[in-house]
Design a protein that fits this description.
The protein is of the alpha+beta class and 178 residues long. Helices cover 61% and strands 9% of the residues. The chain has a 4-stranded mixed sheet.
C-alpha cells in the first residue's frame, strides 16, 4: 500500500505535488479525487492540513461551470446548519447519504455490466433489442389502432373527407377553366 501523497501549497498560491515533483492545478486535484488517490494538502509555511479548503475550492470551481450539483436553495439550507445544534447530525446525514448513493450506483453498474456481458456489450444490446422489437411493434400497432378509434376517421379517411369538404365549400375549385 502506498503512502499518502503530499501536496504543498506555497505562499504564491501554487500547489506542488511532491510525488511527481511539479506544480499542479485545482483540475489536477480534481483528477486525483476521481482516481481515488489518497492525498493531503499542507500549507508550506505553517504545515497545517488545508485539504478541506482546497477541496472546497475544487467544488466551487466546478459549481461555477455549466452544470452545478448544488442549487441555490440547497446551499442556503446547508449554510443554515452552521452553528446550529444539528450541524454534526447534518454532516453525518450527508456523509451517510453519499455513501449509500455511491453503493447503489456501484451495484447498478455491476448489474449492468453483468447484463451486457464484459466481452461484447454491443452484441448483448443487439440481442436484447431483437427480443424487444416484436413487443414494440405490437405496442405501436395497438397505440395507432386506439388513436384511430379515439380520433374518429383514419388519416387517409380524414384527407379524403377534407378534400370533399373543400369541394363543397368551393364547387368551382375542381371545375376546368374555360
Amino acid at each position: 500500500m502506498s503512502s499518502q501523497r503530499i501536496i504543498k501549497k506555497y505562499p504564491n498560491r501554487r500547489l506542488y505535488d511532491t510525488e511527481v515533483s511539479r506544480y499542479i492545478t485545482l483540475e489536477n486535484i480534481r483528477q486525483l479525487v476521481i482516481a481515488n488517490e489518497d492525498f493531503k494538502v499542507v500549507d508550506k509555511r505553517s504545515g497545517h492540513d488545508i485539504t478541506r479548503s482546497i477541496l472546497l475550492q475544487v467544488i466551487s470551481e466546478q459549481e461555477e461551470g455549466g452544470n452545478p450539483i448544488f442549487r441555490t436553495e440547497v446551499l442556503r439550507n446547508i449554510i443554515r446548519f452552521y452553528g446550529d445544534s444539528m450541524q454534526s447530525t447534518m454532516s453525518s446525514y450527508l456523509e451517510l447519504s453519499l455513501e449509500f448513493f455511491n453503493e447503489q450506483q456501484s451495484q447498478f453498474r455491476e448489474r449492468l455490466r453483468r447484463l451486457l456481458g464484459a466481452n461484447n456489450p454491443l452484441a448483448a444490446l443487439r440481442e436484447l433489442s431483437q427480443h424487444q422489437l416484436p413487443i414494440w411493434r405490437r405496442v405501436r400497432r395497438e397505440f395507432l389502432a386506439n388513436m384511430d378509434r379515439r380520433d374518429g376517421p383514419s388519416v387517409k379517411e380524414r384527407s379524403t373527407q377534407s378534400a370533399d369538404d373543400a369541394r363543397e365549400a368551393d364547387p368551382e375549385r375542381d371545375r376546368p377553366s374555360d
